[in-house]
């Protein structure tokens, strides 16, 4: 159902197609891994990275495996015509007569069948408009953009660059000059099963009108004449809504388009489409409708979703699905003063949650006039407030790329105009883009690490070092890389020799010991920290020797020394002939430090003792 104001409702209804839900996916445990690998390969790398980041697992599971081909073939064998297939729901939609539906329901692998969501037919006439040419249109978009503080976001460099938005609607005609620089990644028409998203043979003329206007509010760019909220974003375009009064069923196309956009790697999904006419209010609980179930899966995969509340206000519980989903950012409409319009649908959901989440301008909003090259027109509806809100989402995601669906929702709510008093008319209030962008637009990120200096309210303890910010990995550099206020003990340089324990200093209390230091002969110290002591200080292997660990300095005292026959001083016991025999002698310390001939002159010992300590390495 299109969320446009004052759409006339035609009462004629036709028999809807049918959802067919399967009991399983017919994948044996031994075959599951191969099936998941195939699905990984089918996902765009961007989609898989988003899933892994948000979900914390490999990014695919059994939900991503398509319905069993044998089951789908069996459905087709009944004579029913397959319309769409859903991996997430493990279901297909099928056009079938009563006899075919009965045959399908009797199949052993069919869990249940239910009618596809059937919308009341709408007269898709254009809302009240005021056509304008460029001569009159200078600055047309200013009121709607300034109400959301978009010019401030543009001034600090945010355009939506690097963000991919999936837009799903009735179709898109891209001939207007506001789309001249548009980055289109891919398009898909789920109605005619091709890639043409503008009107073509078989479409009701003018079908692309609604989607074109919606798209211009996000990414349009026409110099000083007109601008969308996020003109730098790239888009994926899905044509899923059919306005032909003979085919008023699009719930299955909506699900198929959502799955395609998510799998193609979109960061944000927006649809000014909703479904409620065939559901009871008690079913708008965020879990019952088919589109709501699909939206919940997309949220779990990390896709940020904006959805129109609908135009059935001001009565309570008039919202559409999937705006009823907890986590979907449901958008209501206001005028430029922030007053909620009378037509904007209201909450709560059936399970008594507040909806909408936020509101944005949806009355007297300027957009491109479809079918022209230069003209613009004015319209109203939550169809227009929703793409404006999605554009804000793109700017915020450019500023903070790690935002996930829950983070985006929390940020928009917390910075809206009345976050402490949400209600079912306007949710948490009018979006304030500048407040949501926060420090990105008011504080410099000098080292471009995504964190702002503590001096202006940020959390970066060293904004000159991109390796230092909250959540950073500690490295052996003597700095508090993760900004937790503590320096790990192994990064402290206790002896001020320029080498830390984490860098291999084997004795952080001795500045003469560090990797690369020059070994001092006969001092029995492992100066260069290579794990090997002086050869002359090797422990003895003779009987009665101590353990003699490498690197231990010998202990020699007057009481330990004995005189040999020629008056020289030696450590340990002397032999009968006054010469050391065999291996170097070993004292109680286990360090054999005798000279090769068993004697060390007194003047040599004095000279070694007088050597200056090594200058500390800086």
Automatic annotation (TrEMBL):
<feature type="active site" description="Charge relay system">
    <location>
        <position position="383"/>
    </location>
</feature>
<dbReference type="InterPro" id="IPR015500">
    <property type="entry name" value="Peptidase_S8_subtilisin-rel"/>
</dbReference>
<dbReference type="InterPro" id="IPR021655">
    <property type="entry name" value="Put_metal-bd"/>
</dbReference>
<feature type="compositionally biased region" description="Low complexity">
    <location>
        <begin position="550"/>
        <end position="588"/>
    </location>
</feature>
<dbReference type="Pfam" id="PF11617">
    <property type="entry name" value="Cu-binding_MopE"/>
</dbReference>
<feature type="domain" description="Peptidase S8/S53">
    <location>
        <begin position="160"/>
        <end position="429"/>
    </location>
</feature>
<keyword id="KW-0378">Hydrolase</keyword>
<feature type="active site" description="Charge relay system">
    <location>
        <position position="169"/>
    </location>
</feature>
<feature type="active site" description="Charge relay system">
    <location>
        <position position="210"/>
    </location>
</feature>
<dbReference type="InterPro" id="IPR023828">
    <property type="entry name" value="Peptidase_S8_Ser-AS"/>
</dbReference>
<comment type="similarity">
    <text>Belongs to the peptidase S8 family.</text>
</comment>
<dbReference type="Pfam" id="PF00082">
    <property type="entry name" value="Peptidase_S8"/>
</dbReference>
<feature type="region of interest" description="Disordered">
    <location>
        <begin position="535"/>
        <end position="592"/>
    </location>
</feature>
<dbReference type="InterPro" id="IPR036852">
    <property type="entry name" value="Peptidase_S8/S53_dom_sf"/>
</dbReference>
<keyword id="KW-0720">Serine protease</keyword>
<dbReference type="InterPro" id="IPR050131">
    <property type="entry name" value="Peptidase_S8_subtilisin-like"/>
</dbReference>
<keyword id="KW-0645">Protease</keyword>
<protein>
    <submittedName>
        <fullName>S8 family serine peptidase</fullName>
    </submittedName>
</protein>
<dbReference type="InterPro" id="IPR000209">
    <property type="entry name" value="Peptidase_S8/S53_dom"/>
</dbReference>
<dbReference type="InterPro" id="IPR024038">
    <property type="entry name" value="MYXO-CTERM"/>
</dbReference>
């Amino acid at each position: 159902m299109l969320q446009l104001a004052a759409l006339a409702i035609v009462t004629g209804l036709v028999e809807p197609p049918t959802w067919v839900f399967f009991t399983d996916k017919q994948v044996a445990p031994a075959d599951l891994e191969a099936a998941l690998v195939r699905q990984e390969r089918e996902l765009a790398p961007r989609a898989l990275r988003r899933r892994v980041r948000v979900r914390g697992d490999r990014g695919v599971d059994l939900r991503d495996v398509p319905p069993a081909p044998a089951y789908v073939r069996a459905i087709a064998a009944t004579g029913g015509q397959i319309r769409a297939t859903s991996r997430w729901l493990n279901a297909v939609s099928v056009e079938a007569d009563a006899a075919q539906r009965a045959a399908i329901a009797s199949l052993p692998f069919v869990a249940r069948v239910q009618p596809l969501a059937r919308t009341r037919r709408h007269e898709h006439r254009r809302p009240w408009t005021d056509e304008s040419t460029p001569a009159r249109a200078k600055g047309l978009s200013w009121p709607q953009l300034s109400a959301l503080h978009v010019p401030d976001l543009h001034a600090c460099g945010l355009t939506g660059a690097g963000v991919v938005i999936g837009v799903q609607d009735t179709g898109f005609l891209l001939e207007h000059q506001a789309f001249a620089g548009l980055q289109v990644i891919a398009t898909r028409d789920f109605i005619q099963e091709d890639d043409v998203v503008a009107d073509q043979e078989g479409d009701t003329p003018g079908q692309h009108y609604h989607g074109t206007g919606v798209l211009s509010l996000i990414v349009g760019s026409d110099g000083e004449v007109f601008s969308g909220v996020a003109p730098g974003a790239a888009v994926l375009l899905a044509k899923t809504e059919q306005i032909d009064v003979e085919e008023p069923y699009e719930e299955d196309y909506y699900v198929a388009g959502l799955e395609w956009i998510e799998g193609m790697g979109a960061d944000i999904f927006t649809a000014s489409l909703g479904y409620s006419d065939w559901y009871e209010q008690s079913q708008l609980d965020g879990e019952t409708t088919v589109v709501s179930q699909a939206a919940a899966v997309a949220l779990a995969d990390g896709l940020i979703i904006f959805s129109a509340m609908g135009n059935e206000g001001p009565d309570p519980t008039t919202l559409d699905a999937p705006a009823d989903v907890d986590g979907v950012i449901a958008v209501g409409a206001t005028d430029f003063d922030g007053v909620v319009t009378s037509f904007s649908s209201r909450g709560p959901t059936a399970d008594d949650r507040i909806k909408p989440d936020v509101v944005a301008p949806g009355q007297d909003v300027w957009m491109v006039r479809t079918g022209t090259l230069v003209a613009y027109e004015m319209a109203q509806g939550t169809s227009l407030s929703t793409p404006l809100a999605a554009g804000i989402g793109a700017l915020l995601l450019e500023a903070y790329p790690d935002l996930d669906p829950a983070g985006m929702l929390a940020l928009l709510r917390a910075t809206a105009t009345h976050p402490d008093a949400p209600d079912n008319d306007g949710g948490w209030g009018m979006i304030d883009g500048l407040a949501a962008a926060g420090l990105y637009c008011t504080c410099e990120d000098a080292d471009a690490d995504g964190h702002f200096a503590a001096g202006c309210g940020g959390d970066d303890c060293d904004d000159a070092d991109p390796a230092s910010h909250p959540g950073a990995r500690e490295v052996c550099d003597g700095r508090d890389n993760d900004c937790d206020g503590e320096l790990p003990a192994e990064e402290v340089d206790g002896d001020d020799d320029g080498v830390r324990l984490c860098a291999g200093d084997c004795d952080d209390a001795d500045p003469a010991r560090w990797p690369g230091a020059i070994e001092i002969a006969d001092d029995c110290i492992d100066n260069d920290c290579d794990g090997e002591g002086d050869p002359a200080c090797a422990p003895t292997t003779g009987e009665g020797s101590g353990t003699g660990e490498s690197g231990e300095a010998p202990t020699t005292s007057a009481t330990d020394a004995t005189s040999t026959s020629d008056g020289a001083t030696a450590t340990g016991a002397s032999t009968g002939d006054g010469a050391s025999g065999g291996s170097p002698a070993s004292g109680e310390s286990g360090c054999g430090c005798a000279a090769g001939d068993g004697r060390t002159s007194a003047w040599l010992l004095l000279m070694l003792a007088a050597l200056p300590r090594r200058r500390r390495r800086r």
